[in-house]
C-alpha cells in the first residue's frame, strides 16, 4: 500500500494562523469566476450583513491544504505527492469566511484503505477561528497511485 | 440568503454557465490558491507523471462550477455545504501566441435535486462537462464531452 496505515486517526499540528485579506478574497473570486459584488466591494458585503468581504465557498481550500501539507510532508506517512490524485472534496461551512478573519486548521487522517497497489486516504480538516470556534469542516480524499498505476 | 424556499421546485434548472479556460487561468488559480503543483502549468512534468497534458486544478473546476450556484443565490454565504467527486481531468492544451486564447471550457448546469422543508434548504446538483482533449490528434470541435465532476451537490439555505 502506498500510504502507511499507522497514520489512521492521527491529528497533525495546526497551521500558523492564516489571516484572510481582502486582496486574497478578490484574487480567489477572480480565479473561480465568481460574479457576486460581495467578494469585491466592502460596502456591498456590509449591506448584505457581512463584517467585510465575503470569501467564495471554496476559498477554505487554501487553509485546508496548508493543514493537509503536514500529513503529506510527514515522511512516516509515506505519501509520494507526485503520485497523488484528488479524488473528492467536501466543505461543510459552520459560518461564512470573511476578510479580516484569522483562521487555524488541523488535519486528522480519517480513513486509509488499500486500492490495488495504491491507497485512498481521507483527511478531515477542522478550520476554526483563533478562539477555537468552528468555521468550516473540509473532507478531502486523495488517491495515492501505486507503482504500476 | 435571498432565495425563497417556496419558489423552488424539484427538477428546476436554476443556473447554467460556460467557463472558458486557458493556461493563464490555471496560473491565476495557482497564485490565488497557493497550489503550485507543476501538473497544472508544466507540460513536460505533467506528461512525465503519465498525464496526457497540463490539467486544470480539480479545485478550480469545482470552484468555478459551484460558483454558478453561489452567484445565483445573491448572497454566496447561503451555500452551507458543497461536495464533488473528481472523475476525469480537464485537459488544458497550450494555445497562445502573443494573445492568450482559451483552449477548453466547462459546461455547467445546476438543477434543484432535493428540498428539505424542515431545514429550509435546497440541494442543487450540478452537471459539469468538458471536451476530451487528451488525444492531440482529435480536433477540439470533434472532442467528446466528458463528465469531469460527479456527485456535485451544493446545499443552499433559503428564506
TrEMBL record, chain A:
Residues 16-137 form the FAS1-like dehydratase domain. GO terms for biological process: fatty acid biosynthetic process. Gene3D superfamilies: Hotdog Thioesterase. InterPro entries: FAS1-like_DH_region (IPR039569), HadA-like (IPR016709), HotDog_dom_sf (IPR029069), UPF0336/Enoyl-CoA_hydratase (IPR050965). One of its GO terms (molecular function) is (3R)-hydroxyacyl-[acyl-carrier-protein] dehydratase activity. HAMAP family: UPF0336 (MF_00799). Belongs to the UPF0336 family. This is UPF0336 protein FCK90_02185.
TrEMBL record, chain B:
This is Acyl dehydratase. Belongs to the enoyl-CoA hydratase/isomerase family. GO terms for biological process: fatty acid biosynthetic process. Pfam families: MaoC_dehydratas. GO terms for molecular function: fatty acid synthase activity. Transmembrane segments: none annotated. InterPro entries: Fatty_acid_synthase, HotDog_dom_sf, MaoC-like_dom.
Amino acid at each position: 500500500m502506498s500510504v502507511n496505515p499507522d497514520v489512521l486517526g492521527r491529528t497533525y499540528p495546526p497551521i500558523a494562523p492564516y489571516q484572510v485579506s481582502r486582496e486574497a478574497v478578490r484574487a480567489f473570486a477572480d480565479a473561480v469566476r465568481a460574479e457576486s459584488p460581495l467578494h469585491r466591494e466592502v460596502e456591498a458585503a456590509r449591506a448584505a450583513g457581512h463584517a467585510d468581504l465575503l470569501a467564495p465557498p471554496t476559498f477554505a481550500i487554501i487553509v485546508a491544504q496548508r493543514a493537509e501539507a503536514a500529513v503529506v510532508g510527514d515522511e512516516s506517512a509515506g505519501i509520494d505527492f507526485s503520485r497523488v490524485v484528488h479524488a473528492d472534496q467536501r466543505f461543510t461551512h459552520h459560518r461564512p469566511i470573511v476578510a479580516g478573519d484569522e483562521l487555524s486548521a488541523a488535519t486528522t487522517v480519517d480513513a486509509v484503505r488499500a486500492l490495488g497497489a495504491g491507497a485512498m486516504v481521507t483527511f478531515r480538516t477542522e478550520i476554526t477561528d483563533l478562539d477555537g470556534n468552528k468555521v468550516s469542516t473540509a473532507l478531502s480524499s486523495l488517491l495515492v497511485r501505486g507503482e504500476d498505476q | 440568503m435571498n432565495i425563497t424556499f417556496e419558489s423552488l421546485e424539484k427538477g428546476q434548472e436554476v443556473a447554467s454557465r460556460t467557463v472558458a479556460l486557458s493556461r493563464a487561468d490555471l496560473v491565476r488559480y495557482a497564485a490565488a490558491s497557493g497550489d503550485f503543483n507543476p501538473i497544472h502549468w508544466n507540460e513536460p512534468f505533467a506528461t512525465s507523471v503519465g498525464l496526457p497534458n497540463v490539467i486544470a486544478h480539480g479545485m478550480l473546476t469545482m470552484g468555478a462550477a459551484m460558483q454558478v450556484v453561489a452567484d445565483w443565490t445573491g448572497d454566496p454565504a447561503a451555500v452551507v455545504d458543497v461536495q464533488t467527486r473528481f472523475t476525469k481531468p480537464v485537459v488544458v492544451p497550450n494555445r497562445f501566441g502573443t494573445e492568450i486564447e482559451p483552449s477548453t471550457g466547462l459546461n455547467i448546469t445546476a438543477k434543484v435535486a432535493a428540498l428539505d422543508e424542515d431545514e429550509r434548504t435546497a440541494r442543487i446538483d450540478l452537471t459539469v462537462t468538458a471536451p476530451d482533449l487528451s488525444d492531440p490528434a482529435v480536433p477540439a470541435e470533434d472532442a467528446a464531452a466528458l463528465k469531469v465532476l460527479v456527485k456535485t451537490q451544493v446545499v443552499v439555505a433559503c428564506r
